[in-house]
Batch of 4 targets.
Target 1
Amino acid sequence: MKPLIITTALTGAETTREYQPNLPITPNEQAACAKACFEAGSRVLHLHVREDDGRPSQRLERFEEAITKIRKAVPEMVIQISTGGAVGAPFEERMAPLQLKPDMATLNAGTLNFGDQVFINEPKDIIRLAEKFKAENVAPEIEVYESGMIDSVAKLVKKGHITHTPLHVQFVLGVPGGMSGKPKNVLYMAEHLQEEIPTATWGIAGIGRWHMPCSTIALAMGGHIRVGFEDNIFYHKGELAKSNEQLVARIARMAKDYGRPLATPQQTREILGL
């Protein structure tokens, strides 16, 4: 069976300690969490940063501090920064951290309603961001929220705006305003991606109540899995997770029972083309 890459989205830009008291916010907390998640089986860290008061931040210095401390704590972890930021963040601020040369960063493939807000990614800005990835030699992780975005990404690949191979695409399903995490949606997204970009790898981030259904299907289909407090703060319905690493450990245990090996750090980099 294909090795499984577990990504941890440990903080996000929207989750607050009001709802999840164990949310890691400071660079020191994020570094300690990264180490614990790596030991539990995660190989990729999806990173948003916050100020000490919990406010979401795209400040370059804050990203640099967090990346430095995470790399010191767990050198083998693949660091994947977010260029999405918080909804409404100026696009120039979203692009800026690419100059820090993380292993990967996210490239959101379109605009969508995001709860009560609109997450704006205009076509011209998506192209500008894709070209910035090439200039900085950073591998993109393409985030898609519905099937039409796969078609848009395929066009960007065809036109040469996205050139990294193998391309890794993350299905983010269950965002209010985006495609839900119903099993038939996961199946369709995986099949559609295979048709449009046959060489691409894919992973799933099931938001909220869709976390376990999406993860279970990805485990069986050979996809990769994202967990963490950015996407889901519960372990069971009504029971808050104690930590990000608790969510990682559950998927690692499921993979072992299923007979699917966890990717080693070297395998992770090979699969993602790093």
Target 2
Amino acid sequence: MRHNNKTKSLGRKAGHRRALMANLASSLIEHKRINTTLAKGKVLRTYVEPLLTKSKSDTTHSRRVVFSYLQNKEVVAELFRDVAPKIADRPGGYTRVIKTGTRKGDGAEMCMIELVDYNEIYGAEAKKKTTRRRRKKSDDDVTVTPEAKTAVVEDAEVVEETKTAPEVKVEEAKDEVKVEGKDKD
């Protein structure tokens, strides 16, 4: 029974399991997509996502922490140089696990695990789906010609000038600004 055992053992001792996860994570970061069994893929996702989050802050401490997990200088350099800038604005969910069927030899469920930001196929579909809905024009919509707009505006200005004096001051200030603009040109 697996009461209170939160980690999947994958049929391996702790040291073997750590080495397996480090190698799978290194391969995923290096190749951006790998094929493995479904059980390993799910465990790898929980292993590598915190490392990707840690790589967002490029500090000496975060590099050392990630290196302690991966044990591969080249992969750590690639993670901080190439992968981290691409995932910088993503709040989580850096990997995707896709089931690919069963293996012919032993019938094990297989999957493909990949970094989300490196798949061009899904990215292209997401960009195509962004469309805007427009409201249909109805017969009730009134079209106003530019001549009618100016006539209404002129009538409104005349009414405002006769009613209150402060609005006239504002218009005088606007005229002064226009005059200054003409002098500068």
Target 3
Amino acid sequence: MNKLIITCAITGAEVTKKDNPYVPYTIDEMADEAYRAYKAGASIIHVHARYDDGTPTQDMDRYKKIIDAILKRCPDVIIQPSTGGAIGMSRDERLLPLKLDIEMATLDCGTLNFGGDQIFVNTENDIIHYAKVMKERHIFPELECFEKGHIDLVLRLHKKGLIHAPLHFSFVLGVNGGMAGEERDFLFLKDSIPKDATYSVAGIGKYEFPLAELSIRHGGHVRVGLEDNLYIEKGKHAEGNEALVRKAVQMAHASGRDIATPDEARKILGIGGYKT
């Protein structure tokens, strides 16, 4: 079985220090959280930029400063900026990080209710546009799918030559308005993608570690981090992203899987092949 790729989503755009005081805002906090997660076993760092007061931003200069600070501490790690940004951001605003020298980014593959009046909008034309820009700039897309219809859209666009192989999916489960994170949901999505595709699972809140365990057992990969889950166990805050990564590493070792380095992750996903 392949080595396990661990992605760490260090901050997100929604959670705050009021939710967990370890949520990073500043450039130094981001770099420190990324470094600790990397040393614990994360080979991919998923980044949302924020200003020092916690306000989410897609500002290219802010992203560059964060990325440079992370790479100074862990130069071989894979940086994965978000093109999701925050609710209400425009298409062009969300694309700004793609102007930087990056090798990977997320590509959200469908619209979703996010609770209350919040709608996370990703039209078919949005998705095609993001995919085209990523291909032109040799940026490897992680295909974020919150439910089965998003996978179907990816496969349809792939067949039309609008989304290109190798395909790497991220099943984001447990979001309010999306699919839940039960075993049946994971298996349904896993069995809906091509056999030669790779996948990772991001379980939100209480689903993070049960889904991580399932993905580890079935040969997939995992995403953990304070963006998705603030707790190391029920009622106990995680003291930073490192604790969440370490728990995923322990689960992998218990199942007999080793942890991929960043360079091994690049080979497993085919990131280099996407650039040809």
Target 4
Amino acid sequence: MRHKIAVFDFASCEGCELQIANLEEEILELIDLVDVVSFREVMKEHSDDYDIAFVEGSINRPIDAERLKEIRERAKILIALGDCATTGCINKLRNEWPESEVLAEVYPGAKKQMKDNEFFDVFPTKAINEVVDVDFYIRGCPVRKEQVLYYIKRLYDMPPTTNKDLDFGIILRDMEIDNRSVIKYNPRKCILCRRCVHICQDVMGIDALGIVEKGSEAIISTPLDIGFDANGCIRCGQCISTCPVGALGNRSPVETLAMEVKKQKLSIALDSVALTAFVQKHTALRTMGPELAERYVIAGLRSVGFRKVLQYDYYLARSREMDEASDAPVLASWCRAAQNYFTERELNTLQVKPENSPWSLLLEDESKGICLLSPCSAMKEVEEFNYVLTSANLIELFKQLECDLEFMDPEQAAYDGKTVQNGFQHPGVPGSKNGFGIRKDLMEKLSAANLPRGPVNVYPCLAGCVNGGGTPPTIDEMDIEQRIDWLHELRGV
């Protein structure tokens, strides 16, 4: 008898279901073995007549728990599909916060709509075996498509038996967040994948962090627990960009800034790279032309209380002009992380002139009440700024102040003060003249190069500023190319 299979999903990204769809030619083999009677992601038909149910996702609401129980009653065999179903995975991290805080974060200003509404009725996230009995577990985030095919063949060839695979739970470690450095570390989120260790040690050659302790006590830290900044960290934030679970991040100034900005005494300067990362994450702005989207953001910043909105690219251009006048090769002053690399290691390969930096020039013009939107984690250590925001911080700020950019008037929105003209190329974008990436072999590259006088661009971040630690994390080449194309269109390059 052919088994009838149904695939269901709860709170998840549905990536595990997509893996089934990605079987491609092998899906023909699957169809020869079983009848798929319900699979919302790939077919319109639905039937409640099934004997094997694949369930993806964690359980977050009472109505979801009831639906899962109905699925369990109909299915002879129930299979947990992927890590969200088997352990609760990332969704379960929210259990560390009260439900009221979680709802307020996701649905700000929606208290009236949430009252007595079953769709907002949540409880602590649960793996599906905390609600019903599970027969098999297919782990992975996402699962491997070959595993799914293997289980279907296994059930086809063997009499159905249950609990052939053992369950295991998640142990939430009660450890404090490490806030000592510009880059913060949350050991309760960390899954010890070691991506940050690999990029810091093997790719960048910085060696500021690593795995310490053993077993369930293992965390990302430094020898003698001295903090990242005290161990040679240059604050580039590439560990943040590669962390898949948000265990590494930047300190957020939004809670304090949201109260202070209403006094209308603060100005803000916008770095165009941070601006493109912000626009890329905004559903409405990313469909507009870059110049129009930029005006919407400027209008929004004025509406929430910023006194002036300045163009940081103007100061980047001035910084370049000052470096061009040098009689010797100098470290281009626009990158704070590169300055950290050279000054903390006392390297004399290139001259370092902090006074030529764009932030120094900006702070000369605007000495009081100045904030910066930057793609760079290292800029958060410049104490002369009142606040340094990342693109993610700006998203959070607009949300907290309930500012909807789509309702702004962009017609009269323009930068205050001087701006660069069309044709300006952001020095933090790969492809700039005399560009080098910080890697283990940087010194050999610089020594072998016949460097001309003037600025030498050094890129700590793997794709320059466009994937710096202050931008929404990505190593996706398409995301990076879209950011670069947006910048070039904005500045007419």
